[in-house]
Structures are given as structure tokens and as C-alpha cells.
Write a structure and sequence with these properties.
- This protein has ten helices and 13 strands.
- With 351 residues, the protein is α/β, with parallel strands linked by helices.
- A six-stranded mixed β-sheet has the order 10-9-8-11-13-12, sandwiched between helices.
- The chain is globular.
- 35% of the residues are buried.
């Protein structure tokens, strides 16, 4: 494989230029397992670890390599060492599960994200709005893939419902059983481009990847009896090369999807509400009881769905809380840094 087959382009070439004259090589992360990375290079696939200097300089988890990243390497007998990560063209991130405020990068350097939602008992418009918010925030182009269309009795109504919450976003119903709709996905899987598949557990991402690939490259299990959900099989993120085509990133099903980022993605996902807000009489309108509120008017006449607006408010509060937590952490990190510097200066002074 050439670097171009792996998604290399002029943007990454420019970022790598300072390293090129220092006998470094470049590779793309295909998977991670317990601090060991599988990396594709022009010389083939290899196992890599992070150098001590790079790990020490990493301020947060988001600075470390993620699947899809282009990394700066030195090759040695039996493996490689990672010395840095090239600036990302896009990244799909979420808040890491648990109580810590930390970024978890799910997939990096992707052109398109397939937001996969199953057309069965687990179908949920509010969850799709959450995925769309992070999809737009990532910098990639979101496409909604409605899987398990063969299990849906009211396909057209559900497709229209999804199009109603995702203006301008392609909505493609597919069936991995019959193969219907799969040909519409081909337009996004072009040579040298990367598509990440994201969705909740059991929506059929791995089965979909097998159908796109044309072979069983990902392990799958049968649908669980009683709720039409597939058994969760993917346990880690993985970059898959489609020979002669593009690249796919498979991801484990997300049982918890907490927001990460700014309100940019929220504005894209809820463009209709943003547009209404611009028509309010007051620029600081809270859309509650203010006179001349275009949002409240739209709610009262049925032009805006109450559940959609409630979800918008919920996600907005979540992002505001995240921003406050990040500010607190940044302040503490800055204090700790200067405390460390002052301590070192005092020790040097008394020598």
C-alpha cells in the first residue's frame, strides 16, 4: 500500500515536512491495545509504542494517538516508536465515560461519519440528535445510515422523521440482509478517503462493514431474541482498508455518549432553532416568557417540536457545564505548572 491508499494528502505532507529531513517516517494508526499500537506504513504493518519523551509532554489523553491518526515514527528491528502525532484534519470526540472531564477521541482524520441507527425497537430521534451534534462538531460530513430496514414496518415514516431533525444530511436506509441501500453508501467511500461508523451497541455496524467489504472481516453475532438488537461484538476501534477503495473505522457500540466540544456542532445540528433565535426581538432572549420570542411562537403554532426543543436545551446545558469544568481544570493545571517551576527555581537558588 502507498501512503495515498491510506489517506495521505497534501495537508499531512505539509505537517510532516519538518520531520522529513530528520530520518523519521510516517504511519497511520490502525488499532490500539493496552498502549500498543498497530500502525500502517509504506513498509507494511508494524507494532509501535510511545516514546517516553512524547508521553511526558502529552498534557491530556487527547494528545496521545487515536485510531486514524498519522504518527511520526522511528523504525527498529521488531517494531517502531511513536514520537508525535500530526495535526488532525478532523476528530470525532466524546467525553470519556465516568466522572472525569477528559476527551476521548473515537476516530481521527475522517472525511465522513456514518451515524448508524437501527430501524427496530431501539430507534430514537433524540439520541440521533446527540450523535449529529458530535458529528458536525468533528469537522467531518455526517451521513445518517438507518440499518435493519428489513425489520421496519413503517420505513417511509421513520425516514421522514429523521429527515425532519437532520436538514441537509443524507438519510440512507439499508439492509445488510437484502443488500438494499448499500450501493448508495459507495459515493462516500472513495479511494484515499476515510469513513467512520458510529452508533449504539447492536445497531449492526460490523455486519454493515462485512457487506461493504465483501467478506467477513469483523466478527458478528445473531440478533438477540426479544428486542431485535444485535449482540455487541466490536470491542476496540479499528481502521480497515478496502482494497482499491477507501478506508473504514469500526468502533465499539456506545452505551454512553456524552458531549465534547463547543456549541458549533449544536448550532449545525439544530440549525432550525438557531435560525428562529435570530428572529427574536431581544438578542439575549432566553426563549421563555420574553415578548417577541420567535422560538416560543414556533412552539405554540406547532412549527417546532416540543421534544426536539427540550433536547436542544438539554444538550446546551450539558455543553455549558462541560465548558465550566474545562475552565476549572485549566486553572488548576496552570497553578500546578507554576508551582513546579517556582519550586525548581528555589532549589536552584539554594544550591
Amino acid at each position: 500500500m502507498t501512503l495515498e491508499d491510506l489517506g495521505w494528502n497534501s495537508y499531512f505532507s505539509e505537517q510532516f515536512a519538518p520531520y522529513a529531513a530528520q530520518e523519521f517516517v510516517v504511519g497511520r494508526v490502525s488499532s490500539e491495545q493496552r498502549n500498543l499500537y498497530r500502525v500502517y506504513t509504506e513498509a507494511g504493518e508494524t507494532t509501535a509504542t510511545i516514546s517516553g519523551k512524547f508521553r511526558f509532554s502529552a498534557v491530556s489523553r487527547g494528545d496521545l494517538p487515536a485510531v486514524g491518526d498519522w504518527v511520526v515514527l522511528t523504525l527498529h528491528q521488531g517494531g517502531a516508536q511513536i514520537h508525535g502525532v500530526l495535526p488532525r484534519s478532523s476528530k470525532f470526540s466524546r467525553k470519556a465515560a465516568g466522572t472525569t472531564t477528559e476527551e476521548q477521541i473515537v476516530a481521527a482524520n475522517v472525511e465522513t461519519v456514518f451515524l448508524v441507527s437501527a430501524l427496530n425497537n431501539d430507534f430514537n430521534l433524540r439520541r440521533l440528535e446527540r450523535y449529529l451534534t458530535l458529528g458536525w462538531e468533528s469537522g467531518a460530513f455526517p451521513v445518517i445510515v438507518l440499518s435493519k430496514a428489513d425489520l421496519c414496518q413503517d420505513l417511509e415514516n421513520k425516514r421522514l422523521d429523521v429527515e425532519g431533525i437532520a436538514p441537509g444530511v443524507p438519510v440512507i436506509p439499508v439492509s445488510s440482509v437484502s443488500g438494499s441501500g448499500l450501493e448508495q453508501l459507495d459515493q462516500f467511500i472513495k479511494p484515499g478517503t476515510t469513513v467512520a461508523l458510529l452508533g449504539s451497541s447492536g445497531v449492526g455496524k460490523s455486519t454493515l462493514i462485512n457487506r461493504i467489504y465483501g467478506d467477513e472481516v469483523q466478527k458478528t453475532n445473531h440478533v438477540r431474541y426479544g428486542d431485535d438488537r444485535g449482540k455487541h461484538t466490536t470491542t476496540s476501534r479499528e481502521l480497515i482498508v478496502l482494497p482499491g477503495r477507501g478506508l473504514l473505522i469500526d468502533t465499539p457500540g456506545m452505551r454512553e455518549l456524552q458531549l465534547w466540544g463547543t456549541e458549533n456542532g449544536l448550532g449545525e445540528a439544530f440549525e432550525d432553532i438557531q435560525h428562529l433565535s435570530s428572529a427574536c426581538r431581544f438578542s439575549d432572549c432566553r426563549h421563555e416568557h420574553e415578548p417577541g420570542c420567535a422560538v416560543q411562537l414556533a412552539l405554540s403554532v406547532g412549527d417546532l417540536d416540543h421534544e426536539r426543543y427540550a433536547n436542544y436545551q438539554k444538550l446546551k446545558r450539558e455543553l455549558a457545564y462541560l465548558a465550566r469544568k474545562e475552565d476549572q481544570i485549566a486553572t488548576l493545571e496552570e497553578k500546578a505548572k507554576w508551582k513546579k517551576i517556582n519550586k525548581a527555581l528555589k532549589q536552584q537558588k539554594h544550591r
